[in-house]
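Here comes just one.
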Amino acid sequence: MSNEKNGREVILSVKHVDVSFEVGHKKKFDAVKDANFDIYKGETFALVGESGSGKTTLGRAILRINPCSAGEILFEGKRISGKISHEEDRNVVRNIQMIFQDPAASLNERATIEYCVSEGLYNFHLYKDEADRIAKVDRALESVGLLPEHKSRYPHEFSGGQRQRVGIARAMIMDPKFIVADEPISALDVSIRAQVLNLMNKLKAEKNLTYLFIAHDLSVVRFIADRIAVIHRGEIVEIADSETLFEYPIHPYTVSLLSTVPMPDPIVEKSRKHIVYDPSQLDQSGEKRELKELRPGHFVLANSKEFAAYEEKITRLEKERRQ
């Protein structure tokens, strides 16, 4: 099965994925609805939305923590959702790692840093002997800016930023191909955030990694992402490359999200208006909405009437930019 698209290698495909949870008796809650996108090898693909939009649920579905109710997820052209063999399941764990949002909660407080980072090596026996394992731990810690002597300490002896570095080292030691980074900097001080983002970019370049970067803060995403998918109430409403999304936001929800990004210029910030998203302004005809390509690589969730209005809007915006 070919996993090439637009001349680029697709490492992960999410095809019409639904994720539902049972709530009470015979009721179900659809956390993710008809998610559909590809992630190319070597890129940082961001999934952005407010709290409760379904972005973490989708990330966990890729990691096989949350089962898909419908659709399928392909990794390197092979289906990894639903029932797969034990060997294929181990392959997913080996090649897809996660960096968690809360660095304190994701590390075992009773275990040393050496054990926390080594856990994957133990589970998959990825070392020749004890000396090789310790050398790998030392290299992983050094790659994230920590010292080999830190390995005898416990997580509570570190700051939040250092603990997140340990979390990154734990993921990197497995030599994964794909990393799901679930709000990896939201629990950190603002001064530490840039350090962690720079570190992630450095490791991406060195190890030819691919990231799914989950976030709610568009200003952070602009710095790190190649392409962005905006998710609202479980539905992906817009996908575009980073530059295009900030230049030509089309879906009203994307416009609303962008209006909340703080500007460094106090005069501009003071004069800006925050736009509140109002779903009732969308077409109420009941026609099914689907992701449609507005411009090459720029997709928007719309029915036929909305799509015609979005086409008109982007043509107008492009004309204004050229003048």
Notes: DSSP finds eleven helices and 13 strands in the chain. The chain has a mean pLDDT of 92. The domain at 4-322 is CATH 3.40.50.300 (Rossmann fold). The longest strand covers residues 8-22.
